[in-house]
Predict the structure.
Amino acid sequence: MKNLMAILLVVTVFTGLSMAQYKGYDDKGPSNYNTSGNLLLGFINPKNFTMNHSFNVSMVNTRSGSVSLTSYVNTMNYSFSKNLNVSADVKVQYSPYASSSLGAGYSSALQKNLSGVFLSRASVNYQISDNAFINFEYRRLDETDYYNNFWDPYNSNGYNGYSGFGLR
């Protein structure tokens, strides 16, 4: 106990006597290394570029198995003019867990198919007039987009020849 008190006393005394280094404020201002008028790559104006992010964690349990999924989506938009813009969604997705009644091989294949980096949407939009526009769009639909009641052979909402009233 005496040794601890002696060490504490020595540290306290020498801490008060020590001198700190002082470095003055040396602000030279922003550096102007971009000479192309604030354009990226010479032609992309950052003022017309927007980026949105989303993160999703989900878990699905069904009678035939369960899947957990995490995904990050980066939506990038660029307006070339008032009437013309492009947009793209880049998705980074990972499935940390998958189980299926069809076996371990199917579960690991599903887990592998759901994981990766994908271009999930890309579009070019052109507004011809106030009431007319043209939209060219690419969408990548994966297994997570297909699961709904219409693919279930035992559903009762009219698909596969069955209706909710027992009529064919």
The helical segments are 2-17, 104-114, 143-146. The radius of gyration is 30 Å. The longest strand covers residues 84-100. DSSP finds three helices and five strands in the chain.
